[in-house]
Each structure stands twice: as C-alpha cells, then as structure tokens.
Amino acid sequence: MSIELSGELFHETISENRGKKLPTRIIADSLAQILAEPEEDHRWIVDGMLISGGCSLLGSKPKTGKTTLTRDLALCVATGKEFLGLATVQGPVLILSFEEKRHEIRRHFLNMGCTGSEPIFLVTSPMGRNSNEIIEKLVQEIKPCLVIVDTLVHVLGRTSDLNDYLDVTRGIEPLLRLARENDLHLMLVHHLGKQERTGGDGILGSTAIFGMMDTVFLIDRNNGHRTIRSIARYGNDLPLSVIQMDAETKKLSLAGSVEEVREIDVAYEYQKVLSISQETLTETQLDSLVCGRTAIKRKALRLAVEKGIITRAGTGSKSSPYMYSCAHIK
Prior knowledge:
Layout: E1 2-10, E2 21-29, H1 31-36, E3 44-46, E4 50-51, E5 55-60, H2 66-79, E6 93-97, H3 102-111, E7 120-123, H4 131-142, E8 146-150, H5 153-156, H6 165-181, E9 185-191, H7 207-211, E10 215-222, E11 225-232, E12 241-245, E13 252-257, H8 258-277, E14 281-282, H9 283-289, H10 294-307, E15 310-313, E16 323-326
Parallel strand pairs: 5-9, 5-10, 6-7, 6-8, 8-9
Antiparallel strand pairs: 1-2, 3-4, 10-11, 11-12, 12-13, 14-16, 15-16
C-alpha cells in the first residue's frame, strides 16, 4: 500500500529551496512494500572502500600527505590498478584542486609516471558562488566515476559557517545528490581541528560533516610513520595502518598495521644495538638497551632471528640461556 501526496507543498527543508512553494510528489510506502524490495547490490569504485553513488571524507592535519594519497587514488582508478592493495573500477576521474600550484601538480603526476593518456581531469581555478552548478556541468561532460574535491571549504562558499549544522548540511547536500544521481563516488578532502580528538570528533567543523559521509578516512603521524584508518557505513573499516611511499614515484602502499611496523622497527633496533656493541648479549641485556612495550619487543626479537639479521645461540634454559649477536659476527 502507498499513499501519494502531490501538488504545491510548502518546503521547510534545508535545501536551497527552503521556504518556497514548489511542485512536490511524496509517496509514503508501507513497511511491507519496503521489506519486499530486493537487496541493493553495491558497486565499488575501490573494492570494499569507496562505494559508487556515495561520499567519503579524507581528513588530516596539514602536511600529512592527504593530497598525495588522493592523486595516487586518482591514478589507480583512472588506470584500473589496485589502490592500497584493493581492486578498482577503471574510469575517468575529476579532481578539483584549489590549494596547489599547477606546476606542482604537473611535477607530481610526472613523478608517478603519468603520460597524459590517463582520463584524469583537473580544475585548479576558483569556482566562485556557482560551484555546484559548475561541478554538475563538468560531471555531465566528463562522466567521471570518481570526483575528488581538495578541499571541502572551497565548494561550501565563503559565507558558510563550518560550525553551523544547517549551514554545512545545505552546502554538502547538493554534492551528495550529485554523487547518487550520477552513480559516482565523491571524496571530500578536509582538515582536522587543532585539538587532539579521536575518530570523527577530530574533524574540523560541525558534526554534520561526519554524519553525512559513507566513509571517513583519517591520516595522522604515529611514531614517525604516516598512518591511515577508516570508519565506514558500508564495507569494511580499514584498521590503523602505516602508509609507505616510494621516494621516486610517489606511489603509496600499506606497510601493515602500526604494531606490525613497530615490530619490524624494533627488530632492526636490536640489530643496530648488537652491531654497535660487537658483543653477545642476553635477552635481558638487550631489553635494557631497546625501548618499547614488552610484548612488541618479544615479537620483534623473534622476528629479527627469523629474518636472519641477528643470530641466537643456546637452548633457553637456565644453564644455557639464549645469547644474541649481530648476524655478521662470527
């Protein structure tokens, strides 16, 4: 059973048509009808990470690599190659980049091996007050499967108050509608606040920003490493992982979880300590010379032996304790 209302209804919405009488058609479906509908099949632009017809936010503090990540993402989607180890759907990409100079963008894409044949389109000039209309026309012409906005504040308008729930919602709503109607994924790049807050609470501005996203990616620095994690409505959350970048090509990959990477770092710290000391040391002696949690140090020590960067002698008993030395010491 459905109930349909039509005619001129007074709009009390948070869209640009607020307070106007507009032709409206509203249908109220029964729960039985909704439950009988077939399950929706999700199409992914990046498998299990970026959903078609959806929107994500990439947030970080300045100078942590969010623009580098978006360009790597753009190239992977444009060429149909894996992004951070996940399959992508190949298609055109539109990037709205408002905070970097054209020659810097050019150099970055050249370093990544781009030839110009990739279906990547860039807008680097300000759009002014009609940004939504301009983006919609670009989408109609290019038909991208991925649109990246770097950064969000440049399309919200100068009069928008980031801390105002309704103001932010009005600004983002047209972009969400554009993504759904054109079956593309929209990624919004944004900054985190100065205060040290965890998860979505760290996003600069109103909680509306976090609430309207299908997925939120957070980039940070952790023990000298760049890290990324995600909070997703659809698909799987990405656990806190370390991003590594090839110095020449600027291509990104996941090095593993923060704990896994820390274990590798500590394993090489053991090698360094033994190399400098040029002595054979017990586990207790090594522990006093290397910083870190005990659980990680235990795993790191076993890892160092497995990798062959240090050697271990003895049986581990009281009469014959394990003795460690740098692998090159005879």
